[in-house]
């Protein structure tokens, strides 16, 4: 189905994709944004419910309000850490909402598809999981397009609903900052800033039973 070169390209994008916090002001062509959103819309979804919407924000005023909501939450979350860890947390850059030329708010509508979405009755969160698949598609597509993307989830949902006039039953799942960058990281920023590191994969794989290694 795919040539070796095409297969390698997929794995390359998966490995190269990074969460990015620094953006240039240069704008992104409309057709590129269109392709990225189209990639999001081609994600799998439970019962094919496609619970997502994409709100594209160019307005500097709205971006500033979103940045305010994220910063308020960042400061509130600092109470979970003490001493040096708190200083370290507060030194991390956790969003680039004002700098990025566009923000896309990806939402989840749990009512889409009515009360009996195939497969969703057992695990109601599968609607959110579907939106996460959509976001990952957008992230990989952005990387392939040479566009940096940062996922921001530091906010109170009601702040975002208020700023963007989102109805109460709709979940604002993510704020995605998109733009060009001259600082596309080689490794996760949280790894280079020594906040966390990638787990050894062999520790995560079990066989037949929980905890049973090969
Ligand atoms: C559900 C989700 C929410 C996230 N929220 C934030 C966030 O609010 N701020 C932030 O700086 N990074 C956020 N990230 C990015 C992660 O910190 C990042 O993916 C992780 O450190 C690994 O780095 P990488 O994406 O470059 O591989 C989020 C990622 C996911 C999947």
UniProtKB/TrEMBL annotation:
<dbReference type="InterPro" id="IPR000415">
    <property type="entry name" value="Nitroreductase-like"/>
</dbReference>
<keyword id="KW-0285">Flavoprotein</keyword>
<keyword id="KW-0288">FMN</keyword>
<protein>
    <submittedName>
        <fullName>5,6-dimethylbenzimidazole synthase</fullName>
        <ecNumber>1.13.11.79</ecNumber>
    </submittedName>
</protein>
<keyword id="KW-0560">Oxidoreductase</keyword>
<dbReference type="InterPro" id="IPR012825">
    <property type="entry name" value="BluB"/>
</dbReference>
<dbReference type="GO" id="GO:0102919">
    <property type="term" value="F:5,6-dimethylbenzimidazole synthase activity"/>
</dbReference>
<feature type="domain" description="Nitroreductase">
    <location>
        <begin position="14"/>
        <end position="180"/>
    </location>
</feature>
<dbReference type="Pfam" id="PF00881">
    <property type="entry name" value="Nitroreductase"/>
</dbReference>
<dbReference type="InterPro" id="IPR050627">
    <property type="entry name" value="Nitroreductase/BluB"/>
</dbReference>
<dbReference type="InterPro" id="IPR029479">
    <property type="entry name" value="Nitroreductase"/>
</dbReference>
């Amino acid at each position: 189905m795919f040539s070796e070169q095409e297969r390698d390209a997929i794995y390359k994008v998966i490995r190269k994709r990074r969460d990015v916090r620094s953006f240039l002001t240069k704008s992104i062509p409309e057709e590129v944004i269109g392709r990225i959103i189209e990639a999001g819309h081609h994600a799998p979804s439970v019962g094919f419910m496609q619970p997502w919407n994409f709100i594209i924000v160019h307005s500097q005023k709205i971006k500033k309000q979103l940045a305010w909501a994220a910063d308020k939450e960042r400061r509130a979350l600092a109470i979970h850490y003490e001493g040096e860890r708190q200083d370290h947390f507060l030194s991390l850059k956790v969003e680039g909402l004002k700098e990025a030329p566009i923000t896309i708010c990806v939402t989840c509508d749990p009512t889409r598809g009515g009360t009996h979405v195939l497969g969703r009755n057992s695990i109601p969160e599968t609607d959110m999981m579907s939106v996460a698949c959509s976001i990952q598609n957008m992230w990989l597509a952005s990387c392939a397009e040479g566009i940096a993307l940062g996922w921001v989830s530091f906010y109170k949902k009601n702040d975002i609903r208020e700023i963007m006039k989102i109805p109460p039953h709709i979940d604002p799942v993510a704020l995605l900052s998109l733009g060009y960058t001259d600082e596309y990281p080689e490794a996760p920023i949280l790894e280079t800033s020594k906040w966390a590191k990638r787990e050894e994969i062999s520790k995560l794989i079990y066989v037949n039973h929980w905890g049973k290694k090969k």
